[in-house]
Amino acid sequence: MNVETQAIHAGHVVDPASGAIVAPVHFSTTYERAADGSYPLDYVYSRLGNPNRLALEARITALEGGNDAASFASGSAAIYALLQTLGQGDHVVAPDVLYYGIRIIMTDILARQGIVTTFVDMSRPQNVAAALRPETRLVLLETPSNPELGVSDIRKISDIAHDAGAMVACDNTIATPVFQKPLQLGADYVMHATTKYLGGHSDVLGGIIVTGEVDERFERLQQIQQVGGAVPSPLECWLTLRGIETLPLRVRAHADNALQIAQFLEQHPAVERVNYPGLQSHPAHDVACKQMSGYGGLLSLHVRGGADEALAMTGKVKLFRRATSFGGTHSLIEHRASMEKGVTRTAPNLLRVSVGLEHVDDLIADLDQALRG
Ligand SMILES: *Cc1c(COP(=O)(O)O)cnc(C)c1O
Fold first, then answer.
1. Degrees to nearest 5, angle at CA 184 with 144 and 198
2. The one catalytic residue among 137, 156, 196, 250
3. What residue owns the CA closest to ligand 1's atom 12?
4. Best substitution site from 98, 105, 106, 146 to test ligand 1's pocket, by max atoms within 8 Å of Cβ?
5. If you ran DSSP here, which 8-state letter would residue 233 be given?
6. Please, which pLDDT band fits residue 343 given cuts at 50, 70 and 90?
7. Whole-angstrom distance, CA of residue 201 vs CA of residue 198
């Protein structure tokens, strides 16, 4: 099946009780046993599983071409759960540019549990090879990366990690499964903040880990999901499923707008540099062309000057909203370093732009007037 069809049909069932095409939200926390004590439909208690969550996991599994998935209350909870399958003495290699919350999990929480992370520049696969140790269990990838839109070679890094006996998990939040399929490029796990493009409307938090193989580690991950309990509610699963139905249409429109905005910004005299994998000028544009079928809706720019000039620019936008997050219908702009506060490694003149679904001419006009000051 093609992605447009999967986005609508995978995990979809007509409600057997009513014939409803749109699934009901199953708010019940508990499910009845049969007279013999068995559970006729395998549902017991909502934290362990419910029809809305099962449908969500089935749909995203299909989109990523995986074998199963475990969903969580946020993208952070999903990645944290995967990291919790590691134990004392295990070593992780992670990108030096990655979602800042994940860096905090590694440096402030996992480090105290005896799990050590080496951060490397993953634009060069040989840096990963150099960081591997006998006890390396996991290589984490985030491509494109947040907020610098760096691109790393999933195939090459997966081969290097597997040769050393480490598994590979790729954060596919920015690309989405419409534009990039990490499992087909060699990754063992794919993770998403479904909060972003999959939900797509800035109204629901969520996260998921999709696995290529249902192995012992994935079963441990499901145990962490069910016993740890950082699960999405049935309503959140329902909202995310609804968002996914239009995912292919939305992300192509986001990407069309983003490329035109990136090209506009690149030639603007008030802009020093634009980070977008679809631009010829991107240092890994060739890798992006090889492993992505589209370049997504997120970009960042370096305003000429420093933090003051960047913040002043965000003060002048009229259509863009000054807010964090991305993947929704509204265009957003954010001064990233001041959001990431103490842990930031982001340049002070960097602005991250989530390109929405408004008309691109209106968006360009707004950026232009804000940059002109
Ligand atoms: C937003 C984001 C996360 C965290 O997701 P939450 O749902 O906010 O916890 C993780 N990785 C990437 C790339 C993100 O953009």
1. 50
2. 196
3. 99
4. 146
5. P
6. confident
7. 9
What one-character DSSP code corresponds to residue 45? B
3-state SS class at 36: coil
What domains can you pick out in the chain, each with its CATH number?
3-244 (3.40.640.10), 247-372 (3.90.1150.10)
Tell me how far apart the alpha carbons of residues 210 and 305 are, in angstroms, rounded to a whole number.
42
The residue ranking higher by pLDDT, 297 or 340, is 297
Locate the DSSP E strands across 21-132.
68-72, 91-95, 116-120
Whole-angstrom Cα distance, residue 86 to residue 91? 9
> What pLDDT score does 6 carry?
98
Per the annotation, the verdict on 171 as an active-site residue is yes
From 31, 80, 99, 100, the catalytic residue: 99
* Interacting residues of 329 by C-beta distance below 8 A, sequence separation 6+: 200, 201, 202, 250, 356, 357
Of 301 and 98, the structure prediction assigns the larger pLDDT to: 301
**Spatial distance between the Cα atoms of 23 and 312, rounded to a whole number of angstroms:** 47
Burial, 35: exposed, middle or buried (Cβ in 10 Å; 0-12, 13-18, 19+)?
A: exposed
Quick check: CB of 328 below 6 Å from ligand 1?
A: no
Which of 329, 335, 371, 373 has its CA nearest to residue 353? Answer: 335
Q: 129: closest CA among 162, 82, 90, 87?
A: 162
The alpha-helical segments, DSSP class H, found in 153-228 are 154-163, 176-179, 216-223
pLDDT band at 340 (very low <50, low <70, confident <90, very high): confident
CA 298 vs CA 149, 187, 261, 274: distances in Å: 8, 23, 10, 11
- Side-chain half-sphere CA neighbours of 354 within 13 A: 27
Sign for the CA dihedral angle at 301, 151, 181, 190 comes to negative
Residue 274 three-state SS: strand
Q: Is the CB of 354 under 6 A from ligand 1?
A: no
Chain centroid to Cα 130, Å, comes to: 26
Beta strands in 180-331 (DSSP E): 189-193, 207-211, 271-275, 298-303, 321-322
